[in-house]
Amino acid sequence: MDDAPENNPLKILKSVYGYDTFRGSQAEIIDHVVGGGDALVLMPTGGGKSLCYQIPSVLREGVGIVVSPLIALMQDQVSALRELGVKAMFVNSSLPAYAAEEIEQQMMAGELDMVYVAPERLVTPRFMGRLAKTKLALFAIDEAHCVSQWGHDFRPEYRQLTVLHEQFPQVPRIALTATADEPTRRDIVERLQLGDAAQFISGFDRPNIQYRVALKKNAHQQLLRFIEAEHAGDAGIVYCMSRRRVEQTADFLNEHGHTALPYHAGLDPGLRQRHQDRFIQEEGLIICATIAFGMGIDKPNVRFVAHLDLPKSMEAYYQETGRAGRDGLASNAWMAYGLSDAGKVRGFIERSEASEQQKRIEHQKLNALLGYCETTDCRRATLLHYFGDQMDAPCGNCDTCLEPVETWDATVAAQKALSCAYRTDQVFGAAYLVDVLLGADQERIGRNGHEDISTFGIGTELTKTQWLSVYRQLVARGLLSVDVEHGSLRLTEKARPVLRGDQTVQLRKDPKPARRDRKSKRGRATVQVELRDDAARELFEALRAKRMQLAKSQGVPPYVVFGDRTLIEMAHHRPQRMDQMADLHGVGAKKLDKYGHAFLEVIASHQSEV
Ligand code: ADP
Ligand code: ZN
After folding, report:
1. CATH 1.10.10.10 domain extents, the chain
2. 42-80 pLDDT per residue, tens
3. Which of 71, 131, 195, 379 has the fewest Cβ atoms nearer than 10 Å?
């Protein structure tokens, strides 16, 4: 590379992408790869991995080859790059042969900056032969965890990628992933022969995501309140456990005036694809989905991810909530959780085909998740701790930080609750045990002969709701286990010291039913709230409409034209001239040229109206 000023990474960042500074370790990574070194990059979703190979591809002589497992993502990335004026193309099975041929010819002629290619095509002798005739800038291996069986998206073709290193030892390779647990990382290094590569490992934190867990009462109503108070008009994903619940939830939201589409494995594949496309192409759509949805969704302005049912594990929770806020703007991860969920997930695990050992692992993973739901500490700290990251101070951007949980000494209550389960032979569920504790005059209690046991009616100091909360938390802490068939509660080893009085128990006080306080610290996550006043909000809507119109006419998703943050800056700074527009976040030279005037017009016409 030469040292002309327009050819350094920071200049490219500004002139092509319209960004002012590198994030995290981007600058270091880019320097390393531009200098010809191999790299392994672990960065959370939204951290900005793409720039780490895109800028070196532009700067280094030759074509950058990007291996990517998902056709849909390739298309999106390439159209976004072309909008920026980068000469990028993709070749995959969605192209007719003559089109692929033409692109490969351009590649060999050195007319392109970057080519995205699927792994199975890359390793064919034909394509390898063509690479041998191409001047190569680098190989980028995106979603590198696909090489590992430990990872969740194993792709056998990734194993063959070692051939790149063998045939082109001089060409730098950069492998990237957001999945970073230790075994997967080791596997990537070994399988891709990256033993000598520099490792760039960022923490897992997603500071712009606010984590919250609500107690499930009426999940649909709670979801509706959450969306209407904080996310009117925003794009979001609602995860549910079953297909039926996905359908019901989408129906419910539609009945209440929101556009929601179902997505699950039982839908006709064509319809499912259309729903996914609409989610990407349109604004403000809600997808209700089983976990099948999300892979290959790169939409940067998903403003909320809601869980109506428990995810399977902390890993799944992190991955699913991670689809919110890739653009770095404030976003919400909201979950409604209740005791019956835990029983249901246990049931799935028990009934699965997995080996006994695998089941044990899955139960442990579920326990970690329940601990997260019931924590009285900072949620983010709990989440990051699970992945081996430490936080120095509470985050200030999760529900327990914003509204600290009160705890109470529940030792005696726990003893009563546990012995009540014990005295009734550990075959009843929480609802019945609470009735016994309260001495509810029920026929059933009499019939079972439980009026005479020592725990009958000894719990009148707490309400029914409070007792249910005690049982829920004892389950979450592993003092009781739920029988998957009948929901009955059994004591575990951990209950012993509490019953003996050797150990005290602190439980959380469940918050009072949501106060609808508009000024509360919650609900800061919508883009609407980032806008400082009504005038800015109005202008933002007008800019958004223009963006949609431009996107439609070119067949690209709106965020490919400009991201939300760029529109927010336009609404606040109200640029009048092209040079002022160029100063805004996300406005590079090419986009300024292409769209600058259209947006200046919207701003000017708004000015005259005010
Ligand atoms: P990842 O692949 O790690 O999930 P992306 O590369 O898609 O993340 O980047 C996420 C978003 O952040 C994109 O919209 C990208 O343009 C933006 N971005 C990346 N780096 C920067 C930066 N240095 N300054 C501002 N925005 C950035
Ligand atoms: Zn916190």
Report:
1. 407-508
2. 998 888 999 999 999 999 999 999 999 888 788 889 999
3. 195
Residue ranges, CATH 3.40.50.300, the chain: 9-201, 209-402
Burial of 88 (0-12, 13-18, 19+ CB in 10 A): buried
Atom of ligand 1 nearest to the CA of 22: 23
Whether the CB-CB separation of 67 and 127 falls below 8 Å is answered with no
Task: Yes or no: say if 294 and 344 are a contact pair by the CB < 8 Å rule.
Answer: no
b/e 497-506 (16+ beta carbons within 10 angstroms → b): ebeeeeeebe
Place of tokens 């063959």: 160
484, 350 Cβ separation under 8 angstroms: yes
Q: 425-440 pLDDT, tens per residue?
A: 999 988 899 999 998 8
Longest alpha-carbon distance in the chain: 90
State how far the Cα of 286 lies from the Cα of 289, in Å rounded to an integer.
10
- Of 3.40.50.1820, 3.60.110.10, 3.40.50.300, 3.40.640.10, which CATH number belongs to 9-201? 3.40.50.300
Q: HSE of 100 in the Cβ direction (CA atoms, 13 Å)?
A: 15
Cα–Cα distance for residue pair 333/353, rounded to 1 Å:
31
Q: For atom 19 of ligand 1, which residue has the closest CA?
A: 48
Q: Which ligand is nearest to the CA of 21?
A: 1
> ∠ CA(289), CA(522), CA(229), 5° rounding?
60
The span from the CA of 185 to the CA of 512, in Å, is: 44
Counting ligand 1 atoms within 8 A of each CB, the residue from 10, 14, 15, 17 with the most, and so the one to mutate, is: 17
Tokens of 81: 């790059």
Beta strands in 357-488 (DSSP E): 407-409, 480-482
Q: What global pTM score does this model have?
A: 0.83
By alpha-carbon position, which residue is closest to atom 25 of ligand 1? 19
Q: Which CATH class is domain 209-402?
A: alpha beta
Q: How many CB atoms lie within 10 A of CB 304?
A: 26
How far is it, in rounded angstroms, from Cα 489 to Cα 421? 7
The DSSP symbol for 310 reads: -
Phi then psi for residue 289, to 5 deg, are -145, 155
